[in-house]
Amino acid sequence: MQGTETSRQVFYSIAVAVFVYGWMSVNIYLPVLPQLEGVFDTTTTTARLTVTIFLIGFAFTQLIWGPLSDRFGRRR
Which domain holds residue 31? Predict the structure, then answer.
């Protein structure tokens, strides 16, 4: 029974970490977006496109994470 409880704690820890990663990365990145235009000498549209690409990539990983959580996170 102890092994099941430990694996469940690891699973929940990873799930929370994935959620927090997406939330923190967007909240850290958006305030510095105007400065990135100057640093990388790019347009506003291109700088905003980086956020769009990140969110598309993050959404794509949910297609992988969802089935894995269904497979390993549920009781048999």
Answer: 2-73
Structurally, the chain folds into a number of domains equal to 1
* List of E strands, the chain: none
This prediction's pTM: 0.60
15 to each of 43, 46, 55, how far by Cα in Å?
Answer: 35, 31, 18
State how far the Cα of 25 lies from the Cα of 10, in Å rounded to an integer: 22
Q: Convert the pLDDT of each residue in 6-29 to its tens digit.
A: 777 888 888 888 778 878 888 888
pLDDT at residue 3 greater than cutoff 80: no
- The answer to whether 44 touches 37, Cβ cutoff 8 Å, is yes
